[in-house]
Amino acid sequence: MAELLQFVITGISVGMVYALIALGFALIWKSSSVANLALGQIVLISSWFTYSMLVQAELPLYIAFPLVIIFALFLGWVIERFALRPLIAQPILSLITVTLGIGYFIEGIVTFIWPLSVGALPRLFPKEVIHIGPAIISQEYLWVIGICLVVFILLTLFFRYHRLGIAMRATADDQMAVQACGIPVTRVFSTSWMFACTVAAIGGILISSIGGITQGLIETGLKSFSVVILGGLDSFIGCIVAGPIIGLAENLGGGYLTQYLWSGVKDIIPFVIIIIVMVIKPFGLFGEKRIERI
Amino acid sequence: MTLPCGVRNYNYAEDMAIVRTRTHWALLIGFLVLLFTTPLYFSNYWLSVFNLIGITLIAAIGLNILVGYCGQLSIGHAGFIAVGAYTSAILTNRLEMPFIVGFLAAGVVSGVVGIIFGLPSVRVKGFYLAITTIAAQFIIIWVINHWGITGGFLGIKVPLASIGGIVFSSEKSQFFLIITIAAICVFLAKNLARTKVGRAFIAIRDNDLAAEVMGVNLLYYKLIAFFIGCFFAGIAGSLLAHWIGFMNTEQFSFTESILYVGMIIIGGLGTSIGPIFGVVFIRILQQVLTMNLVPFLESTFTMFPSGFATGVTPMLFGLVIVLFLILEPRGLAHRWALFKSAYRLWPFSY
């Protein structure tokens, strides 16, 4: 029972982080229909940047965190401006592979600047454990869930009420009409990239403050695609619902299936979910089913 | 298709011929002679590079059929190569079958696995399919790492390739085996694009709905594409296994899959010459970077922490992929075509 509760809390918090990273994907997909496969590497580089700020430069958190946000915004702007903008209106194949190339490039930069293979962020959250019934739970997980919820709410409000948020939703809906209304579409694209990188960076900091910074973060980014797929590519609600589902499946499966299957089954569950969703319901739980015409 | 000056077609067979003038024949035969006498001019080190290029080329041709001709983006190609490599390794090592059985079985098993993971392609395409193949890559590698028969993380030894008593033990003999198979694969791929199946692939790539309306059976042809693409990957994997002699899953990482996509992009998607350019370009670049540039940087800039220069390789690869997509999306094959037409028309501009 205690075990189960532990798995559930861990699962939900890891799932929330997946959802955050996935949100970064959905933001870009919604506004510009570019599939960003470099998410994992963006998470990786922003975690290492945080490491540099907090551990190597020993800045206090209230200075380091804004710097990380600025770094992520800048990263998003650079990627959009120099790699994606020349490729507007290219076939989807180029758009996917260009993000793969960017990912590869970022991976190289990370090895170049931070050749250490493993780094550990200082503990950002209080360490004391909490007793919920019979279970002993690290407080970190609850903090992560809380922060993720705050970011979700902020983003939702932004998209609902802010001019730019509304412009982004409109762009997602119909690019031509938006252009006719005088909204600068390219600026919307670059804003969505900046936002996406920021959200992914926050997710990265949260997950690497618990698990450390390793190359495994790239895989975390890839795993978060299962959230996008399950939730539906263009749905924020989908991300928020599917994130915890994936996290739960991963942790419960890892907890209870390992004894029946081989070890490491935890890492593979999101990918299995991807295949299952593809076969059964390719457009996800909340995704819009696109009807194609010739 | 531009014809050389003064060449006319009198019947359909002539029109379809790949090699048509005396110059073509001379160039082709000259090239083949040069290719098969390569061991005379190069050291063992370069022969091993060429062997790697040959193996990569076979796999890249498969990927080009799948991505370039049929338009089904696969980012899990290294996974399918791994399937082939391990099938061959298990058959020849654990069950002590002859090499040729392992070789063919590698292709077939890999093809069947490809069909299984290609099934979603019936309903989805583009990004969804890319994600599915990424998932396939990770699932395959996980299974190989944990299934006892494959040797898991410890790896598995693979005996040398041998056909009818001839053992391919030296780098030189391996070269002949690999290059012969690679040449056959290039020939098959070139012709596949001109058959009914190849045309169906191209129709599916250009517009799958229109193709379906015209009577192309999408399910059948997409799965055929997956089978052929992964069959090539499988036999490449088998050759790789017997060439290296030892397998573990680190040789089939996700970055390797990305590199394969990069190769066919750089070479030129949907062309028969493209994969050759792409593979040679990337593998030579890789060799120069890891053998020359990285040690040089490491020894020159000692003030940086050690290991920093290994990042140069992925950085440059990423940069090359992005730059090619932006500046020359049709790849080196397009440059080659431009050069050929300029050469044909010289000294007139058109």
Explain the overall architecture.
The complex is a heterodimer of chains A (294) and B (350). Chain A has helices spanning 2-32, 39-56, 61-84, 92-113, 139-161, 163-173, 175-180, 185-211, 216-231, 236-257, 269-280, and strands at residues 129-132, 135-138. By secondary structure, chain A is mainly alpha-helical. Chain A has one domain (2-280): ABC transporter involved in vitamin B12 uptake, BtuC (Orthogonal Bundle). A two-stranded antiparallel sheet of chain A has the order 1-2. In chain A, strand 1 and strand 2 form a beta hairpin. The relative contact order of chain A is 0.20. Chain B is mainly α and 350 residues long. Chain B has one domain (40-345): ABC transporter involved in vitamin B12 uptake, BtuC, CATH 1.10.3470. Chain B has a two-stranded antiparallel ribbon with strand order 1-4. A two-stranded antiparallel sheet of chain B has the order 2-3. In chain B, strand 2 (162-163) and strand 3 form a beta hairpin. In chain B, helix 5 packs across helix 11 (218-244) and helix 6 (99-118) runs antiparallel to helix 11. The longest helix of chain B is centred in the middle third of the chain and has 27 residues, at 218-244. At the A-B interface, helix 4, helix 9 and helix 11 of A face helix 7, helix 10, helix 12 and helix 14 of B.
In brief:
The complex is a heterodimer of chains A (294) and B (350). Chain A has 294 residues and is mostly helical. In chain A, 72% of the residues lie in helices and 3% in strands.
